[in-house]
């Protein structure tokens, strides 16, 4: 069976636009309440923690899915040792899966114009 996301168009947007769409969708709140599922796809421990973050803070890529396993978003976050989200206190969206398209952050676009990979 074909992946339905293969049929969606890709729109490259600024960080401000994707953050606004992410905030409007309330995905972070839905994840915190258990309404949607977050799956950590990558978690690494930087040798030097990001500025202002404690030692043992992890850099993570998290995929959000609906309960029906439909992809909703891909975010980056810094997870502190105490379980809180570092930096701004919110995940940083990298992709949003909308009904008719997928939003990608423009700054993540590779020079050869191909689809970014994880």
Task: Write structural notes for this entry.
It is a single chain. The protein has helices at 15-25, 27-33, and strands spanning 9-13, 37-44, 58-65, 71-79, 92-97, 101-105. The chain is of the alpha+beta class. It has one domain (4-106). A 6-stranded mixed sheet has the order 1-6-5-4-3-2. The mean pLDDT is 88.
Strand percentage: 25-35%
Overall pLDDT level? 88
Structural classification = alpha+beta
Shape type: globular
Q: Order of strands across the biggest sheet?
A: 1-6-5-4-3-2
Estimated radius of gyration: 15 Å
Q: Number of DSSP helices?
A: 2
Number of structural units classed as domains: 1
According to DSSP, the number of beta strands is: 6
Distance between the termini: 23 Å
Give the topology string: H per helix, E per strand.
EHHEEEEE
Low-confidence stretches: none
Helix content: 10-25%
Largest sheet: 6 strands, mixed
Keywords:
2 helices; six-stranded mixed beta sheet; 6 strands
Put the structure in a nutshell.
It is built from 2 helices and 6 strands.
């Amino acid at each position: 069976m074909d992946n339905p996301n293969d049929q969606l168009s890709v729109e490259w947007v600024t960080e401000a636009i994707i953050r606004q769409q992410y905030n409007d969708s309330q995905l972070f709140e839905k994840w915190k309440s258990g309404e949607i599922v977050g799956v950590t796809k990558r978690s690494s421990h930087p040798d030097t923690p990001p500025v202002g973050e404690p030692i043992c803070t992890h850099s993570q890529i998290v995929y959000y899915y609906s309960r029906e396993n439909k992809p909703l978003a891909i975010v980056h976050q810094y997870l502190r040792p105490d379980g809180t989200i570092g930096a701004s206190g919110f995940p940083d969206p990298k992709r949003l899966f909308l009904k008719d398209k997928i939003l990608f952050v423009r700054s993540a676009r590779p020079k050869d114009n191909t689809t970014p990979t994880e």
